[in-house]
Fold this sequence. Notes:
alpha+beta; 3 strands; 3-stranded antiparallel sheet; 41% helix
Amino acid sequence: MLLSVKEAAALLGIKDATLRKWVQQRRITFYRIGRHPKFKQQDLDRFLEQLRVPAIPRMKGFRPRSFKKAE
């Protein structure tokens, strides 16, 4: 099933205009049906996976320094 711009943007948590800009810039995979871009769920999942930033495991006994406020 193909998703519209509105549906795909809602799924990604972004505005329609942002998704349309990404389509224009070819930053995201899409299908052109007539003049309208459409999206597959699996392509959106793959796109999100590429944006994933893995967590860094904490070292035992590590305590971050407290930062002093600038005067």
